[in-house]
Amino acid sequence: MQGGCVHQSRYVLWLFYGKGGITMLNCCARFCSFLRGLLGRFTLRIAALLIIAVAGIVAIVVLKTEAEKTRYAITYLPGGGRLGDKIVTYLKAKYLAQKYNVPLIFFPLNYTHQFAMSTLEPKKQKFDEVSADRVIQIYSDTDLAFLLKKKFPGAKKILFLCGYNTSLQAGKDFGEGLEIINLYTVQNKQFGDNVKRMLTPTRTVTIPELPKDRITVAVHIRKGGGYDAPLKAQQYFNVGLPVTYSIIDVRKDTIANFPTFNMATTPYTDFPEALKWTVEHAFTEKVPPEQFYVDQIKKLSEMLGDAPLYVHIFTDDKAPLELLARIQAHVNKSNIAFGTRKTENVHNVNIVDDMYAMSKFDCLIRSWSYFSWVSQIMGDHKIVIYPGQGHVYWINKEILFVDNVKVFLREPRTDDPRWELFKHVQWPKTNTVEARKIAVEEPVDIVPQLFEAVEHNDLVALKALLQQGYDIHIRGFRNNTLLHTAAENGYEAMVLFLLQKGIPVNEANACNETPLYLAVLNKHKGVVKILMEHGADDAVQNINRNNAVDVVVKRFGASLPYKEIAALLRATPTPEI
Questions:
Q1: Contact 386, 292 (CB under 8 A)
Q2: Could you tell me which residues come within 8 angstroms of residue 320 by beta carbon, excluding any fewer than 6 positions away?
Q3: Which residues, at least 6 apart from 273, have a Cβ–Cβ distance to it below 8 Å?
Q4: I want to staple 174 with a disulfide (CB 3.0 to 4.6 A). Which of 165, 297, 358, 411 is the partner?
Q5: CA dist 451 to 409, 485, 517, 556, Å?
Q6: Range list of H helices, 101-174
Q7: What share of the chain is helix, strand, coil (3-state, %, to 5)?
Q8: Which residues contact 127 (CB under 8 A, 6 or more apart)?
Q9: Residue 89: which of 68, 110, 71 has the closest Cα?
Q10: Rounded to an integer, what distance in angstroms lies between the CA atom of residue 109 and that of residue 81?
Q11: Are 226 and 319 in contact (CB under 8 A)?
Q12: pLDDT at residue 433 tops 60
């Protein structure tokens, strides 16, 4: 009988706890042997049965707790139409997934089939957008940090959406915060190696033949004329204004903050409407003039002690040899050899080849283009030079001037295969100026009683609070209205009540999301129908430039709940470039 009880205990514990349960049983068996000598066989049988009962109760509690635990995952929305935009959105989500230990749900975007991520990222997921109880778009790292601590009544599966404009660093906009990923891929080798594997092209790409006896420098010069309007700024000038250099030392995890130079410039608002949305006027950091590249090639040569350099120009200019001749003539240094692709320089040809090829150089001089930023992530450059974001200014509507330049340093170690070429370099020091650790500040959210009533779908409590004089137009997290909260949760009666009380149907929050956008995102067909009947505008774009139709067409179009919602909407998707 004793052997039978022990065998039953072994089976039950193995069933619920696996190998750990067997270890537990061995301890219990020793305890039973002690009891046997002390109390006899009958008591031992009772003890064995008690072990089975206790194990069963513990297993039920564990399984119930696991079932009630909120599960999280993160995925991403399409961002922009170009290769760099797509990969940036994917990498932001991947970084946040790693940082907060949240599973990443991968899905293909335009161009991603050309990279290993299309086959290496896990395909099997515990849940997706269809089975998720709540879908929430995040606009910053601090958003996610806060939401992971927040309780969601009745929701056990939370899916976060990372967008093209999601900011990764407190106090920085969505572009400049990308330096966090640069630092993280260097400091976290496992993550960095994984990213490089995912960004490996799936086909053989063309890489320029690189000299082994020279430090190699890739220079990415974006000229426009394809997707972008042709450039009109003056390309060469001598304005006699100072330029400051900000050093980012990835080995020390610091950012050296140099003072910036403020000068009189032409405000963007002073340009005619026809010019405001050309790439030069709306995204000045993407297209610095040729003077910038000439200056930085000279600066890099100076930093490297005028060692022998090979500089290769990557460009979309349709006349690359003429561009090369101008750059070479203005640099005019005998220690530098130059090269470029002589043919097929078009904005939509050799895209993946150039992106990957630039990652294989020792150094990189680039614009603030996501295309060349991805090359930096893919590579192991010792020095990367690029314009400081927000530091490219117009002077008299003729000259684009860069007054602050970032220098990203990764001093090679002695075991680096290229160490011999760099061992003479006097690396810039960052400890002579203020240096600070990169930190993320978490927001403090105070949820008023009105929002608690709406979140719990308690219409009686809400009416009682309003009778006490509470303001129905109160704003909460992300500047949401009560209607945002009701729509996001799918509470149809609550939505109708709030509309009747006068909350505007198209009121946007701090991320320019309307209640309709949140209802569509969370598959609440009934709420979508109510909002559309009350005049909701489904063409309003959030700060990621997505409208409600984009959600169901671009990201979730294959899912049945979203197909049914799409039939209720009227707008057309935002066109991609």
A1: no
A2: 313, 340, 341, 342, 345
A3: none
A4: 165
A5: 48, 7, 19, 29
A6: 117-120, 141-147
A7: 45, 15, 45
A8: 71, 73, 157, 159
A9: 110
A10: 10
A11: no
A12: no
Per-residue confidence (pLDDT) for residue 217, from 0 to 100: 97
If pLDDT is split at 50, 70 and 90, which confidence band does 129 have? low
Angle value at C-alpha 110, between 107 and 115, nearest 5 degrees: 75
Q: In the predicted model, is pLDDT for residue 16 greater than 50?
A: no
Tokens for 389, please give them.
Answer: 């974001």
From the candidate CATH numbers 1.10.10.10, 3.30.160.270, 3.30.530.20, 1.25.40.20, the one assigned to the domain spanning 449-566:
1.25.40.20
What Å distances lie between residue 494 and 28, 133, 230, 534, CA to CA? 55, 18, 52, 14
Residue-averaged pLDDT of the chain: 78
Structure-token pair, residue 25: 């049983």
Query: Phi and psi dihedrals of 41, rounded to 5?
Result: -65, -40
CB atoms within 10 A of CB 39: 12
Question: Cβ(383)–Cβ(363) under 8 Å?
Answer: yes
- Global pTM reads 0.74
Task: Yes or no: say if 291 and 411 are a contact pair by the CB < 8 Å rule.
Answer: no
73 has a pLDDT exceeding 70: yes
CA distances in angstroms from 464 to 331, 469, 495, listed in the order given? 75, 9, 17
Domain ranges of the chain: 2-68, 71-198, 215-436, 449-566
Q: What average pLDDT score do residues 436-464 get?
A: 69
Nearest of 412, 411, 390, 410 to residue 401 by alpha carbon: 390
Question: Is pLDDT at 220 greater than 70 in this prediction?
Answer: yes
Q: What is the pLDDT of residues 151-198, one digit of tens each?
A: 887 788 899 988 878 888 655 554 556 788 888 888 888 999 999 999
Highest mean pLDDT among 86-95, 278-287, 339-348: 86-95
- Strands (E) in 283-432, as ranges, are 309-315, 336-340, 363-365, 383-387, 392-395, 399-402, 404-409
Backbone angles phi, psi at 37, to 5 degrees: -65, -25
Exposure string of 320-339, with b = 16+ CB inside 10 Å and e = fewer, is beebbebbbebbeeeebebe
Instruction: Give the bridge partners for 405, in sequence order.
Output: 245, 387
First to last CA, the chain: 76
Statement: residue 251 has pLDDT above 70: no
